[in-house]
Amino acid sequence: MGGQTLHIDIAIIGGGVAGLWALNQLRNRGYSAVLFEQEALGSYQTIGSQGMIHGGVKYALAGAWSAASEAVSAMPAIWRQCLAGTGKVDLRGCRVLSEDFFLWSGADLQSRLGSFFASKLLRGHVQKVAATDYPAALRSADFRGQVYRLADLVLDVPSLVRTLALHQQDAIFAIDWQQCDLQREGRKAALALAGCTVVPQQWLLTAGTGNEALMAQLDSRQPAMQRRPLQQVLVRHEYREPFYGHCMGGKPSPRLTVSSHQDQCGRPVWYLGGDLSTGAADEAADTVIARARQELAELLPWLDLGATEWATLRLDRAEPRQPALLRPDSAFVGKLDGVDNARAAWPTKLTLCPDLADEFERQLAAENILPRHPQDLAALAGLDRPGIARPYWDTLFG
Ligand SMILES: Cc1cc2nc3c(=O)[nH]c(=O)nc-3n(C[C@H](O)[C@H](O)[C@H](O)COP(=O)(O)OP(=O)(O)OC[C@H]3O[C@@H](n4cnc5c(N)ncnc54)[C@H](O)[C@@H]3O)c2cc1C
To answer: Which of 83, 173, 243, 364 could form a disulfide with 137 if both were Cys (CB 3.0 to 4.6 A apart)?
Structure first.
């Protein structure tokens, strides 16, 4: 290490939604903070997400109202405050794709879902929809099931990333790991750049799957990470009515999840997840596409999508390691083994980013890590700025 030392309160590595959210919240709280991104902001999971802000009902279907449902159920209201400009992070400028998320089932599941949703616990989280208010995709004389409206909302993720980045432009830098080094001196981590060493009170690693390599670089094995891979399906088509919904089959997880987007030329794209994608990570793309076609034909047989083009997307979901690769219940922030000034974090869901930032703040306060250093980033003036990741519906079709 050599040259100038940049003292700052918080340095974040990884500019997905988790890092960007934390950067906004911490600076709004008076901490000085900087974020380093090696590719484009929002790459991988964030830009690949469906943008649903879950209210927990999807998880409650797995059985009782669980810890996951508790943590998640508070989230839509928190995001709505931020969208209105009255929360801890200002999301005015982020586009809401839909205030409604539907859940539908075939006639065979009607009574089971009906009694489940009528339970006291779920009151306020889910509402039965009258046939006159069905989303267009389910308005057919041949549809025999039930439709529910969830408290969830759906965001346009590219505009979310742009909005989070816009407020913090001065504090976001591109990092080229060929030109710098994350080093450990005793029990402290520092970043050696040309002519400058960054030594924050605390590092926050929010690099998604990239956290693993960053931790290895610092010789730290804990907290351990797990990857849960999936293969989503994208279909570009000519049906213009947007649709956001989970179709429930015989299992507690959605059989199919549909969200609607538009490519850069305004053409509609449906992004298909749920069991269709989580069980398909290792299958050939053609096999998964064939199954997606069959699912749509079975579940929405009255629908004519017009001319279609198909693609799939393989991604890893990065999370703290759980027994038997289960999905963790809430956002995770944990101290790096052997490094006093670094924590790794995974939100587990985009929805849980507010929870991640709150948890990080709690941990800082518990160690008396308070705003101390000025926001003076002149030493980083030579670094470039990262761009914003392009949505997969603009890059995956030929
Ligand atoms: C297909 C899919 C659909 C999903 N849908 C939803 C949904 O609808 N609702 C929901 O709540 N959640 C959803 N999720 C989960 C959600 O997307 C993730 O929990 C969330 O985006 C994780 O954000 P992150 O910032 O931690 O990581 P990422 O989004 O993966 O971002 C990590 C960032 O760190 C950068 N990086 C990596 N290594 C380095 C390094 N060494 N140095 C600098 N930068 C680095 C990457 O380039 C990237 O920009 C979905 C996930 C997937 C895969």
So the answer is: 243
Q: Which atom of ligand 1 is nearest to the CA of 352?
A: 11
In tens digits, the chain (398 residues) has pLDDT values of 458 999 999 999 999 999 999 999 999 999 999 999 999 999 999 999 999 999 877 767 766 566 667 778 889 999 999 999 999 999 999 999 999 899 998 766 666 676 666 665 566 678 899 999 999 999 999 999 999 999 899 999 999 999 999 999 999 999 999 999 999 999 999 999 988 999 999 999 999 999 999 999 999 999 999 999 999 999 999 999 999 999 998 888 899 999 999 999 999 999 999 999 998 999 999 999 999 999 999 999 999 999 999 999 999 999 999 877 677 678 999 999 999 999 999 999 999 999 999 999 999 999 999 999 999 999 999 999 999 999 999 999 97
Ligand 1 near 232 CB (within 6 A):
yes
Q: What is the CATH T-level fold of the domain 53-156+227-318, as seen in this structure?
A: D-Amino Acid Oxidase; Chain A, domain 2 (3.30.9)
CB 100 within 8 A of CB 133: no
Phi, psi of 349 (to 5 degrees): -140, 145
Asked whether 19 lines ligand 1 (CB < 6 A), one says yes
Span from the CA of 369 to the centroid of ligand 1 (angstroms): 27
Ligand 1 close to Cβ of residue 44 (< 6 A): yes
Question: What residue segments make up the domains of the chain, in order of their start?
Answer: 4-46+160-224+322-395, 53-156+227-318
Using the atom order of ligand 1, give the atom closest to the CA of residue 349. Answer: 19
What are the residues whose beta carbons fall under 8 Å from the beta carbon of 316, sequence distance 6 or more? 45, 209, 227, 228, 229
DSSP label of 253: S
Q: Which of 38, 43, 49 to mutate to test the pocket of ligand 1 (most atoms within 8 A of CB)?
A: 49
* CA 46 to centroid of chain Cα atoms: 5
Distance from the alpha carbon of residue 257 to the mean position of ligand 1, in angstroms: 19
Kindly give the number of the ligand 1 atom that is closest to the alpha carbon of 43. Answer: 49
Q: How far is the CA of 281 from the centre of ligand 1 (A)?
A: 17
17 alpha carbon to ligand 1 midpoint, in Å? 7
- What are phi and psi for residue 13, nearest 5 degrees? -115, 120
Q: Which CATH superfamily is domain 4-46+160-224+322-395 in?
A: FAD/NAD(P)-binding domain (3.50.50.60)
User: Would you mind telling me the total number of residues written for the chain in this entry?
Assistant: 398
